[in-house]
Amino acid sequence: MGEQQHVKFPQEVIDEYAALGVDLPGLFSAGHLGTRMGVQIVEASAERVVGTMPVEGNTQPYGLLHGGASAVLAETLGSVGSMLHAGSSKIAVGVDLNCTHHRGARAGLVTGVATPLHRGRSTATYEIVISDEAGRRVCSARLTCLLRDVNPSDGEHLRAMG
């Protein structure tokens, strides 16, 4: 679960962050809550972020995928999309997350797909649809992020993570 991921970012985005000393793909590897939960981001752009998460290890006492695990996947994907929309001069901070759980999942992987509903200068809102391996919707989520200017200490933190 903690191994390096191979996220597909647009090359111009990788180059933009590399110029700041930040390894963008490295931001989505070891050391994060998502890594402990097995979240793997497989595609990332401001227009679409796709990630998977195993059900095993992320269940509640009845053996079903925990709603909080779905929330972690949703917030991760929506935050990545918001960050990529905002660019390297801003940081995306989640301010509102709403999740509706439609059905349970007991095994396998769930896949989340985040697409933008609104991409502005100061906020970004993404819809995240989480589905099971049969393509059935498990959860519908919406995340709004505040896009604020990067402070010098933010850049130091990002470089330390990369």
TrEMBL record:
Family annotation (InterPro entries): HotDog_dom_sf, PAAI_dom, Thioestr_dom
The UniProt record lists the keyword Electron transport: no
Protein's name according to its UniProt entry: PaaI family thioesterase
Taxonomic source organism: Streptomyces sp. R11
Keyword terms of this UniProt record: Hydrolase
EC numbers: 3.1.2.-
GO CC annotation, single: cytosol
MF-aspect GO terms: 1,4-dihydroxy-2-naphthoyl-CoA thioesterase activity
SUPFAM superfamilies: Thioesterase/thiol ester dehydrase-isomerase
Gene3D superfamilies hit by this protein: Hotdog Thioesterase (3.10.129.10)
Residues covered by the Thioesterase domain: 62-139
Membership in a protein family: Belongs to the thioesterase PaaI family.
Lineage, top ranks: Bacteria, Bacillati, Actinomycetota, Actinomycetes, Kitasatosporales
PANTHER family linked to this entry: 1,4-DIHYDROXY-2-NAPHTHOYL-COA THIOESTERASE 1
Matching CDD domains: PaaI_thioesterase (cd03443)
